[in-house]
Write a structure and sequence with these properties.
Elements (H helix, E strand, L loop, with lengths): L4 H22 L9 E2 L2 E2 L8 H13 L1 H16 L2 H27 L17 E2 L13 H23 L5 H27 L5 E2 L3 H36 L8 H37 L18 H21 L1
Antiparallel strand pairs: 1-2, 3-4
Helix pairs in contact: 1-4, 1-7, 1-8, 2-4, 3-4, 5-6, 5-7, 6-7, 6-9, 7-8
């Protein structure tokens, strides 16, 4: 791992963030208190009976993606090397987040069967926000400038290293290309989040729920920018690694010049993300759920533009990885 300081920082930061994400979904059923099961208020003794069994089942199933990832990571590390473990973790994180969302919705639908007798009855009215949102309104100028500058510096360093004969074309440009591709995917995700409704809003306490909806959107967008910043740091680290002076040993160059500065910047990003998470959690915890009488059903249209773009993106990522492996 010390041979890839940029990728090592990205990988460890990803693991730490995923641990916090697992911790969040771990406590989601009781997020609003022990008298709640997701968005349904239950009896006070619920978690001493059926609730305990449901909670144990839910948490056991949450861990399934990590078992498969651990096995896959060991095999990938043995046969392909550490850089491909990062790709395995990224694919597992994406698949795991989808799986956790489906699992949470499945168990949340069980809640109404255990609703407390004195709980607020579900509402049938739904409000729709007609506000027009633009990506520019959710863009931080300094961050975008920093990401572009890091990409330009990395590109210059990689071109210089390749021209100087530091390594073959694939070794020099493959992982930077993957990181840039991930950057493009995060931008597509960011645009989709800006244009999405992020769920339905009940007809009661509409303004409060719209404010919470907007806070959710901003938090997800901050997470996208946080991941983009980490990708930019990793790209810069990988690029500068190729510029090792002849008078420096590889270990000294990796640790003294690259590893500690990148760790410092990564720690700053963690503070930024943690502050955003705490602010959002405080707002979300103050919200008491309003249960809707009819629940939304998810459907995927294979002819939809977003579905086609998503399929094309992952097909391109798979093609890029296959080309790199060959």
């Amino acid at each position: 791992m010390t041979q890839y300081p940029g990728l090592s920082i990205l990988y460890m930061s990803m693991l730490l963030w995923r641990f916090l994400g697992l911790r969040a979904v771990w406590y989601t059923p009781m997020f609003h208190g022990s008298e709640w099961f997701f968005d349904t208020r239950v009896t006070v003794d619920f978690y001493s009976g059926m609730g305990r069994r449901l909670l144990r089942e839910y948490r056991t199933k949450l861990l399934l993606p990590y078992y498969f990832e651990a096995l896959a990571s060991v095999l990938v590390l043995y046969f392909l090397g550490f850089p491909y473990v990062l790709l395995t973790a990224a694919a597992s994180a994406l698949a795991g987040s989808v799986y956790h969302g489906i699992l949470a919705r499945r168990y949340a639908r069980m809640g109404p069967a255990f609703r407390a007798p004195d709980a607020e009855q579900p509402v049938s009215s739904v409000a729709v926000s007609l506000e027009t949102r633009r990506l520019a309104s959710y863009t931080m100028g300094p961050l975008e400038v920093a990401i572009v500058l890091s990409a330009l510096i990395a590109a210059g360093a990689l071109i210089y290293a390749y021209a100087a004969g530091s390594g073959p074309f694939r070794d020099v440009f493959f992982f930077p290309a993957v990181l840039l591709y991930v950057q493009a995917g995060l931008l597509l995700l960011k645009r989709g989040v800006v244009n999405s409704s992020l769920g339905r809003v009940p007809g009661t306490r509409t303004e409060q729920y719209l404010a919470w909806n907007e806070a959710t959107r901003k938090f997800v967008l901050i997470f996208c920018d946080w991941c983009r910043a980490l990708c930019a740091l990793a790209l810069l680290g990988v690029a500068l690694l190729w510029l090792q002076p002849a008078s420096w040993s590889r270990e000294a160059w990796s640790h003294t010049v690259l590893l500690w500065p990148l760790w410092t910047l990564s720690a700053g990003l963690w503070v930024w993300g943690w502050i955003a998470l705490k602010r959002y959690s405080a707002l979300a915890r103050a919200m008491k759920p309003v249960e809707l009488r009819t629940r939304a059903t998810a459907a995927i249209s294979l002819t939809g533009r977003r579905t086609q773009i998503c399929a094309a993106y992952f097909a391109g990522l798979a093609a890029l990885v296959i080309v790199g492996l060959n």
